[in-house]
Amino acid sequence: MQPIDKNTPGAVEVTTWHLEITEPALVPAPTPSRLNAEIVVAERMTVPFARWLYHYVGEPWHWTDRNVFDDVRWETTISAPDYRHITCVVGGVPVGFCEYELQGSSVEITYFGLGTDVHGHGLGGWFLTEAIHHGFSFEGVERVWLHTCSLDGPHARANYEARGMRVFDTEVGWKVLR
User: Which domain holds residue 106?
Assistant: First the structure.
């Protein structure tokens, strides 16, 4: 596979920020959402549901990494022993999700987001606060981290920083949008 750079047709420059929080006390208390939202902890994910959430939340932000996953690869991902998942539900309807990968004393939020149809209701800050608190609830976790990029929602990085996360690394690269 050829590397993607500025000379690749259709390539756009993408800045990726890696953020972390190491003090659970720095995470603010969740402020109630204006919607009647709740967190559902998945004890066992299914491939169709995981795939649907990934596309529902990620398509507007050019999430394409998993588009090449077949059912076996999806199943391998969601059944890994270090995989965890929560879903944000409003009125019984899933509207967002957070995936975690346990990494010793760290937990990475590998995917986080809400469907664009619920943006603008104060749900993002509430859900992220809950997601970070949930990340710290895993045994032995001392650090919750994630990455976001310039293709993400316009308020994503500010939301992470408002929840006490701080940038610890920045990368600039190229991506072809599909």
Answer: 14-165
Q: What proportions of the chain, in percent to the nearest 5, are helix, strand and coil?
A: 30, 35, 35
Q: What is the pTM of this model?
A: 0.92
Cα(122)–Cα(131) distance, integer angstroms: 15
Supply the CATH number for residue 18's domain: 3.40.630.30
How many angstroms separate the CA atoms of 83 and 90, rounded? Answer: 24
Per-residue pLDDT of the chain (178 residues; tens, 9 = 90+): 567 777 788 788 999 999 999 999 898 887 777 778 999 998 889 999 999 999 999 999 989 889 999 999 999 999 999 999 999 999 999 999 999 999 999 999 999 999 999 998 889 999 999 999 999 999 999 999 999 999 998 889 999 999 999 999 999 999 888 7
